[in-house]
């Protein structure tokens, strides 16, 4: 290709990407707010950083979209590979660049190393979220061992000084961590074999002190459900890069002659403040990632797990179904324990046949009872797992991921099936689709309750084949069960990323439904993911994971932030709690149609003990904001809470949507008047002076409604 400098441009609604070819590999010269249409390459080069200090190479080595060590780049290269220990280095050059609409394809090649690379960069017109994927082709005649292939390497502004990532554990996902971008590399390496509780596959970089509505901020997310590495690196010359890709186990990725390797996509955007980036990701995910059925109003779930666990007595189930319907459930999900030999969590996984000992006539009488209440029927599966105590494992022990002559540690008394084996995938496909068709199942809760340890076929590692095999299996099932909806669950929120969400449209956010813990978990979840796909249930008065006792109002208000449902035994509710729960159920039903396309706002608060957020409909006619007191505040008064996203010129009726005024009033000598009677005020005042909050004791919450009224 000609070495004459060239410029390519991609434009979104408010964003411009500029790619320049003036060295061996194209580079992303600009990613940010939209630039004027007549900007030229000559003008841009005036502002290019070309200064060169002593003590290094004699020429500038700019950060390209595919950095290589051969050019003198001293950061993380985009590719680390070799041929039986040789040809460890390569020098790719641009062979071709083509643009179609808002997609740029860049082909790089190295005839000496016998490899070629295709980088595909796309900018979504609507959301201003860009994505990059990389394809590696082994054009040689010998195998190529790949240790690392970055999905993307994206330059970050030199002014960035902070990185925000989200980590956690089972029952405490999506916890926020900030760190300084110091010289060297921040490496978030995930080796759990699934997206994981410990590390979410997204990160945020920005200027010092960036906040919800301030600072120069960039979001990035890797759409991959397995091992990964997210890297932020600052070099001595001041260059900062963000890099992400699949993290391969030793010897796991070997390309034979002529084979190609496609990476998962990295999605990214840059804006002012985290809220702007969050809103862009929500729009991108809604329009470009999620299944179509997620655009319909989401039904209210009732899940049997915390009500019955493994007790599948028919009379118990019938009465539980009746009680769930009485408080407004629209979908009943029969959880773990319905299949052969499954009386506890030590046996049965893999034997996906209805247990004749409990259900001698199958599930028909349960399904029919659910449908008598005009509810949908859902069923729990954990397809990728097997118990050693199961008919399947006794017949096919080789189907489990393993390493010969090495004992694989159990987790929850189970092992992981090698679903990349065709015979395993075929078995799961036949069992699941047969049951879906037999009982006209509307919904599957697809669980994955352990990390991958020794994920091999007996001799070689194959962890990276599991996510790809999962996507193929999901796609295959959905092709013959077109009306089926699938939730991604992984002992809670351990598998949530844009790749799995192409086939699933609901996420079980956490096994922890203690509303105080959930408020923080959900805050982290919604930084990238839209609220309507977030499974959020009202649990028992005493939370099963923490033992914390909270009021039904707090549990319901926190659950209303996502797709509303019940994880409780409605038969045991007191009469007053039934009335209260029905109120929140009806509130969800009255607003869910617009909530699925609402603009989400995280609200800054004066106290770390308060978490506040809300959703505003597209015309800015109505909004719901929730405030949760996760702890005790230093001040006796909660103060004023400025809202966001409203029309400043509009008049709104401000009212308390939660019916916990009596509960809150006991902590105040005087309570703000709007809590007792709706008041009319303006969007401008609601967003500047804010809403005067009542005294909020620990573990309390309230729900604020704003409704546009004529002037």
Structural notes for this entry:
Helices cover 19% and strands 31% of the residues. The strands form eight sheets. Strands 5, 6, 7, 8, 10, 11, 13, 14, 18 and 19 form a ten-stranded antiparallel β-sheet that branches. An eight-stranded parallel barrel has the order 20-21-22-26-28-29-30-31. By secondary structure, the chain is an alpha+beta fold. Helix 10 (552-559) runs parallel beside helix 11. The protein is built from 13 helices and 39 strands.
Summarize the structure.
The chain has 711 residues and is an alpha+beta fold. The chain is built from 13 helices and 39 strands.
Task: Indicate the topology.
Elements: E1 6-11, E2 15-21, E3 27-33, H1 41-46, E4 79-82, E5 93-100, E6 103-110, E7 115-123, E8 130-138, E9 144-156, E10 162-169, E11 172-180, E12 184-190, E13 199-206, E14 216-222, E15 228-234, E16 240-246, E17 254-255, E18 260-262, E19 266-272, H2 274-288, E20 301-303, H3 305-308, H4 314-326, E21 331-334, H5 364-372, E22 376-381, E23 385-386, H6 391-395, E24 402-403, E25 415-416, H7 422-439, E26 443-446, E27 457-458, H8 465-480, E28 485-488, E29 506-508, H9 515-525, E30 534-538, H10 552-559, E31 563-566, H11 575-595, E32 599-603, E33 610-616, E34 622-629, E35 640-641, E36 651-656, H12 661-665, E37 679-682, H13 683-688, E38 691-692, E39 701-709
Parallel strand pairs: 20-21, 20-31, 21-22, 22-26, 24-27, 26-28, 28-29, 29-30, 30-31
Antiparallel strand pairs: 1-2, 2-3, 4-9, 5-6, 6-7, 7-8, 8-18, 8-19, 9-16, 9-17, 10-11, 10-13, 12-15, 13-14, 14-19, 15-16, 23-25, 32-33, 33-34, 34-39, 35-38, 36-37, 36-39
Helix pairs in contact: 7-8, 9-10, 10-11
């Amino acid at each position: 290709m000609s070495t004459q400098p060239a410029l390519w441009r991609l434009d979104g609604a408010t964003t411009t990407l500029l790619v320049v070819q003036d060295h061996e590999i194209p580079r992303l010269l600009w990613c940010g707010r939209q630039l004027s249409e007549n900007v030229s390459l000559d003008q841009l080069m005036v502002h290019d950083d070309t200064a060169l200090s002593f003590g290094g190479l004699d020429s500038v080595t700019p950060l390209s979209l595919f950095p290589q060590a051969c050019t003198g780049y001293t950061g993380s290269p985009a590719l680390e590979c070799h041929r039986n220990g040789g040809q460890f280095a390569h020098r790719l050059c641009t062979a071709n660049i083509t643009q179609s609409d808002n997609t740029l394809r860049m082909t790089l090649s190295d005839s000496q190393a016998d490899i070629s690379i295709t980088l595909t960069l796309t900018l979504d017109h609507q959301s201003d979220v860009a994505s990059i994927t990389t394809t590696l082709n082994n054009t040689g005649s010998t195998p190529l061992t790949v240790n690392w292939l970055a999905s993307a390497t994206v330059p970050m502004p030199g002014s960035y000084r902070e990185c925000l990532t989200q980590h956690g554990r089972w029952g405490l996902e999506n916890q926020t961590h900030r760190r300084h971008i110091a010289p060297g590399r921040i490496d978030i390496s995930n080796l759990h074999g699934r997206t994981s509780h410990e590390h979410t596959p997204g990160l945020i970089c920005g200027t010092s002190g960036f906040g919800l509505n301030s600072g120069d901020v960039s979001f990035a997310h890797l759409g991959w459900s397995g091992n990964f590495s997210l890297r932020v690196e600052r070099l001595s010359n001041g260059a900062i890069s963000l890099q992400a890709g699949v993290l391969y186990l030793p010897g796991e990725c070997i390309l034979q002659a002529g084979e190609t390797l496609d990476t998962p996509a990295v999605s990214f955007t840059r804006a002012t403040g985290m809220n702007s980036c969050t809103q862009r990701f929500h729009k991108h995910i809604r329009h470009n990632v999620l299944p179509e059925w997620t655009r319909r109003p989401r039904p209210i779930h009732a899940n049997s797990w915390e009500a019955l666990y493994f007790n599948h007595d028919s009379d118990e189930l019938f009465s539980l179904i009746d009680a769930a319907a009485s408080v407004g459930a629209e979908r009943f999900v029969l959880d773990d324990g319905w299949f052969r030999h499954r009386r506890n969590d030590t046996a049965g996984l893999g034997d996906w046949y209805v247990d004749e000992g409990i259900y001698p006539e199958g599930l028909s009488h349960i399904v029919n009872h659910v449908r008598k209440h005009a509810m949908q029927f859902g069923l729990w599966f954990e397809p990728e797992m097997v118990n050693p105590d199961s008919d399947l494992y006794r017949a096919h022990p080789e189907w489990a991921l393993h390493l010969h002559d090495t004992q694989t540690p159990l987790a929850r008394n189970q092992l992981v099936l090698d679903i990349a084996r065709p015979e395993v995938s075929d078995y799961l496909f036949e069992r699941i689709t047969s049951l879906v068709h037999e009982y006209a199942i509307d919904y599957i809760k697809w669980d994955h309750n352990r990390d991958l340890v020794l994920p091999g076929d007996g001799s070689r590692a194959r962890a990276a084949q599991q996510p790809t095999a999962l996507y193929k299996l999901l796609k295959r099932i959905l092709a013959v069960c077109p009306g089926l909806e699938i939730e991604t669950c992984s002992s809670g929120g351990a598998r949530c990323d844009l790749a799995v969400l192409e086939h699933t449209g609901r996420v079980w956010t956490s096994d922890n439904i203690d509303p105080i813990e959930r408020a923080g978990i959900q805050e982290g979840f919604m930084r990238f993911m839209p609220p309507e796909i977030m499974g959020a249930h009202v649990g028992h008065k005493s939370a099963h994971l923490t033992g914390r006792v909270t009021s039904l109002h707090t549990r319901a208000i926190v659950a209303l932030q996502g797709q509303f449902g019940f994880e409780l035994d409605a038969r045991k509710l007191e009469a007053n709690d039934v009335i209260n729960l029905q109120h929140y159920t009806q509130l969800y039903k009255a607003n869910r149609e617009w909530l699925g396309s609402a603009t989400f706002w995280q609200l800054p608060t004066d106290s770390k003990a308060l978490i506040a957020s809300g959703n505003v409909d597209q015309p800015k006619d109505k909004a719901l904001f929730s405030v949760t007191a996760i702890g005790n505040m230093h001040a006796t008064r909660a103060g004023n809470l400025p809202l966001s996203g409203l029309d400043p010129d509009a008049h709104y009726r401000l009212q308390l949507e939660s019916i916990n005024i009596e509960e809150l009033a006991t902590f105040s000598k005087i309570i703000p008047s709007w809590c007792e009677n709706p008041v009319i005020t303006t969007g401008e005042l609601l967003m500047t002076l804010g809403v005067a909050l009542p005294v909020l004791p620990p573990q309390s919450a309230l729900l604020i409604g704003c409704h546009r009224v004529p002037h």
